[in-house]
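Q: Predict the assembly, please.
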Amino acid sequence: MFVSASDLHVLNTVLPEETFNSFKEYYAPEKPVAEQLAIYIKNLVRFDLGSSFYYKMPVAEIIAGRIGWTLLLSFVSISISALLGIPMGLNAARRGGRGGKYLLSCFMALQSLPVFVLAIVFQLLFCFKFHIFPSGGAYTLGMNANIIDLSVDVVKHSVLPVIILVLVELPPIFSLTYNVCARTKEEPYVEMARYFNLSDRLIKFKYVLKNSLPEILSKMNIQFLYAISGILFVEVVFSYPGIGTLLKVAASSRDYPLLQGILLITGFYGVVINLIFELIIKKVNPRF
Amino acid sequence: MNILLEAVGLNKKFNGNTTVLNNVCLKIRRGGIAALIGESGGGKTTLCRVFTGLEKASSGKVLFKGKELGTLRGRSFDDCASLQYIFQDPYAALEEESTVSSVLQEPVNMCSRRGRDYMPPQEALTWAGLAGAAFLGRKIKTLSGGQRQRVSLARSLITRPDLIIADECTAMLDAQAAAEIGRIFKKLNQKLGLSFLIVTHDAQFLYQVVDYIYVLHEGAIVEAGPKDRVLNIPSAGYTREYMESMWEIEGGGLIEQDHLCQPQ
Amino acid sequence: MSKKIANKAAWAIVITMLSVGAFYPFISPYNAADFSFRPLMDPSTAHLLGTDEMGHDLLSMLLAGFRITLTIALAAALISTFIGTVLAVACAYYKNWVDTVIVKLTELFIIVPEIVVLLFFAVLAKPGVYNTILAIALFSWSKVARIIRAKSITAIEKEKIQYTLLLKGSIWHVLIKMWRELYPAVATMFIFQCSKAAVYESTLAFFGIGDPLAITWGRMIRTALNYEGIFTGGAYLWYLLPPIACVCIFVVALSVLAYDFERE
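A: Predicted assembly structure:
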């Protein structure tokens, strides 16, 4: 952990003295900056992210315990959004007309709303008014059941967060696909295929989608990187035990080492997503 | 011989291997009007941009008044002010919505900020053949192409330059407006002793305005000399080809123009 | 036709909200800081939105929220748009390593979401309205810089701006000269940044960071959610939904405006 003396000064005013002292001992802010940095990097290599004030546990351990839930939410929601968004965008672009544009502007409005507000409204409607889904957590606490019941329970808890995340992640994927495909549709080779009276299906998949896919994929990684912040907020509203809820605790208790650990792990997540997309793009189109 | 601008072994490569300028050496003397001719894509514009500093040569150097000129960032304001550039497209070089006076105010402000003597806008406009105070209040978008190009010229005159480089500044004008620009160049050259380097395809310019001609072919100077010699007894093979093609295209018109323009 | 109506409605909403923010002391029924009323009253003619668990009049709080939330949004958007624009023009003006460093910085904000970085630094700073504005402004310029950079790089190649470069104009001269080219994009980005700043402000308040004394919509949402009985009775109708509706209406109206600007 890398902390300057002035940062510590700020913390001094907000932390209880006991935690402050142990903190000071661990991070040794009186040493020169270069030495602190060396210690920090040495710890980082050993996956030592310091220890949390609030939980009084190593940060790496806390994050390792929580990250599974966040990854579950993110991969499920991202897969659903991509599987829905790309065909929707493709179809809207192929049909042309006002339908796609109308959907586009609705999605624009949806996209600009704060994610947590959307989550609160959904929670209010489906958990507290209609009692369709459980209002929070990832599973029912203290449930002693077999593996099937447990999985059903986990799925039931994750339905609402996933729906909200899909609502947030779908619009950018839809508009990206729509725009790219609408452009590809005007290309001469697609016009030519239409001239040869090839079937609509063939044109759609073989000509429009195949040629648009590399561009869509090369821009989609950005959408997924943006999605991570949405996941964090949805978790907070549904008290889902992932990184987001951890972030809320860390922020409100000013748990500086934990915050820094979360910052690092989200950065790491971003780098990994980038790498995965690079691999996929290479597979789909070796030219890129 | 008083040399104003000198290029010493200029090379320019794009993307590592496309050669645009190939060991260009030339000297432009003070008080003359020099023309640079050659085929499109032959490196004329690149050479001008290297002179002005907008582009960096891969190797070689540019000497101005005996002093080496670096890239734009390394030049002093005085060097920039005494080497002025007129753009090809008069519609792109001036802000449509501005007035003539605000266009001319820019170099005035730059000069007075850096303590350089400048020509009053009114005087510059008169030199450029746009007399009348009413002109200062006109919007650029209400001017014709020829008028715009003359405003550009007036803007260049304000910094009291020694050399004006004009890159095909008449290419987008009609013959009459082009001839007018040529007459103004000649007048500035004779009365103010201003030197010019003109890139042109215009036969009329070559015959009536220019003193010296440099022929650029595939990035290299293939011929250089006084106008009469180069035009009448071209020595390089390329220059002969160029002259022939020019006569083929513009031959008929050239004689007509001569007749029309003689009585001044 | 419907597009025009949407645009007009969006303008009307934004202007109304801004004037409520400006003049709320004249329309507010009580002082927002006054908690002398009976707590948890249902809406009545005396208290149109009832009172909270502390005894504040909720309508007065909501109206006070207009001023602080909108001030934060406008100020943060103004600063971040300014930072982003200047950095973008610096990319186009200095090129080379300055460009590389700024582009790398904006890429960093794609990999680590702005809001996470923002939360991190907001926790470190002393809570207060000014620090909230600064934190939002300092960490939300990356999109402005990315978009304006693309515009600046095309604009600086235009001949009218190259002229300023040739006269050794500073980055400010170039920025002023380019303003006409950049203005539509900068205006769009400013509106976009307003909406983003409002979202970030409410998010910070939702996370319990920011000025604990300033009455903002985000803070109202948080206190409503902290109140345990919020979902059991009808309290959410007049306690939780009004601030949520305000944030949503403001943000959607702005995105309609930004979308229209972008298309023009």
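The mean pLDDT of chain A is 77. Chain A touches chain C at residues 7, 10, 105, 108-109, 111-114, 116-117, 120-121, 124, 128, 222, 225-226, 228-229, 232-233, 236, 247-248, 250-252, 254, 256, 259-260, 262-263, 266-267, 270-271, 274 (CB under 8 Å).
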